[in-house]
């Protein structure tokens, strides 16, 4: 049984199964998807995603109901790399360049431009980063 206090869990369905990888479709929902007004609200959204998971433990077949999970700490790590660190870079460059130049437009453009090498670095090291974000999968008990 999975302890859910330190894990992020998603129900999913196997769409493809190979010897060492499994592709699982999960439904990602925004935080307000459980609201009773979600049908009338334009902000509420759900999205289906297909995740490729390395599997060396069990055999799966297309159509199997599964639980996809990963550690909560990994989610925070992804949040830091994807949103928090770029924000810190952007805001720091904006403040420093504005204090040096006094020009808002130049500071804003420079702050946005400095994110290009950051995201290029993330893209170039995506395979290495991908190894640290491992999803795990178990069959759902019926």
Structural overview:
The chain is an alpha+beta fold and 142 residues long. The protein is 40% helix and 28% strand. It is built from four helices and five strands. Strands 3-2-1-4-5 form a five-stranded antiparallel beta sheet. Helix 1 (72-101) runs antiparallel to helix 2. It starts with 6 loop residues before the first strand and ends with a strand. The mean pLDDT is 84.
Give me the side-by-side strand order of the main sheet: 3-2-1-4-5
Largest β-sheet summary:
5 strands, antiparallel
What's the number of helices? 4
The topology string of helices and strands comes to EEEEHHHHE
Mean pLDDT over the full residue set: 84
Shape: elongated
Poorly predicted regions are none
Broad structural category: alpha+beta
Distance between the termini: 13 Å
Q: Could you tell me the radius of gyration in angstroms? A: 20 Å
Beta-strand residue percentage: 25-35%
- The number of distinct β-strands equals 5
Helix content: 40-55%
What distinguishing features does this structure have?
about 140 residues; alpha+beta; 4 helices; five-stranded antiparallel beta sheet
């Amino acid at each position: 049984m999975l302890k859910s206090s330190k894990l992020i869990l998603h129900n999913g369905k196997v769409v493809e199964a190979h010897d060492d990888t499994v592709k699982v479709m999960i439904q990602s929902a925004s935080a307000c998807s459980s609201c009773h007004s979600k049908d009338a609200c334009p902000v509420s959204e759900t999205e289906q995603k297909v995740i490729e998971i390395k599997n060396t433990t069990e055999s799966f077949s297309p159509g199997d109901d599964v639980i996809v999970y990963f550690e909560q700490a990994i989610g925070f790590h992804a949040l830091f790399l994807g949103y928090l660190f770029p924000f810190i870079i952007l805001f720091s460059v904006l403040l420093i360049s504005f204090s040096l130049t006094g020009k808002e437009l130049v500071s804003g453009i420079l702050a946005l431009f400095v994110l290009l090498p950051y995201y290029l670095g993330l893209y170039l090291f995506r395979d290495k980063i991908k190894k640290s974000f491992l999803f795990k999968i178990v069959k759902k008990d019926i």
